[in-house]
Amino acid sequence: MPNAKVLSEKQAVVAALVEDLKAANSGVLVDYKGITVAEDTALRHELRENGVEYAVVKNTLLRRALDDVDLGDLDGVLNGTTSMAISKDDPIAPMRIVNKYAKQMGDRFNIKAGFMDGKVLPLDDVIAMAELPSKDALMAQLLGMMLAPLTSLAVVLKAIAEKDGEAAAPAEESAPAAE
């Protein structure tokens, strides 16, 4: 039986995890066995740039926190090494970044599971969402789609104006000069 100090420290960690999980839009649990310090540093840097919190967590403490926020269905993946990436702003960011590194590192870095808006997601859904473009890229695509008809109209009107200008110019030149 752990002493009171250790127990209170563990309870504080679980409480902090519960708060983080409640505030998160989405998250991903990862098995990170065998990655290098350089790879971990690059991963953490990119996650931080995108507003994603990343931490290595003890399975027993994470299990208690997940149970407290009704994500107990994730208990089955809590074995081996576990890290967690969560986002409060962009729900796709943790999935997209972690999936990118999982592809680069192969078997040394694998997505175990994910969740979004308080619901556990199947692994296939996590990977499918990870393949979506970033929020900025989606906004740029939307803007491009909205501007495409206007751009096409402008090109057509310009072509018509140029054609009318060419048709009018020869008629003026061929007219006899009145002196």
Tags for this entry?
58% helix; 15% strand; alpha+beta; Alpha-Beta Plaits; 179 residues; five-stranded antiparallel sheet; 5 strands; 2 domains; 6 helices
Q: Can you offer a commentary on this structure?
A:
Strands 2-3-1-4-5 form a 5-stranded antiparallel sheet, with helices on both faces. It folds into 2 domains: about 5-130, Alpha-Beta Plaits (2-Layer Sandwich); about 135-179. The protein has helices spanning about 5-25, 35-50, 60-70, 95-105, 125-130, 135-175; strands spanning about 25-30, 50-55, 85, 110-115, 120. It has about 180 residues and is an alpha+beta fold. A hairpin with a 2-residue loop joins strand 4 and strand 5. The relative contact order is 0.13. The model has no long low-confidence stretch (mean pLDDT about 85). The chain is built from 6 helices and 5 strands. The chain is elongated, with a radius of gyration of 28 Å. Helix content is about 60%, strand content about 15%.
